[in-house]
Amino acid sequence: MHKLFAVLALPGFALQAAAQAPPSRAPTAEQDHQQMMDQLGIKKLRPGRVNDVQAPRNPVNYDEARANPYPVWPDPLATAAR
Description:
Layout: H1 2-19, H2 29-40
């Protein structure tokens, strides 16, 4: 009987202790982000890419049509013959 009481009472004590704990002083994600930008000296972030080809502002700086999806990689198991 005493073991059953202990098992049932333990979660209740844990919940009560958590409810009485002081609030966390950790910064929010937005505050942390701003603090990191201040430390790095970043004044503003570059906006994301614009997929519109006719967009005059902030075009993408690469051409996907020229990208090689299958580059020729060297064989890692072969050694150069001397």
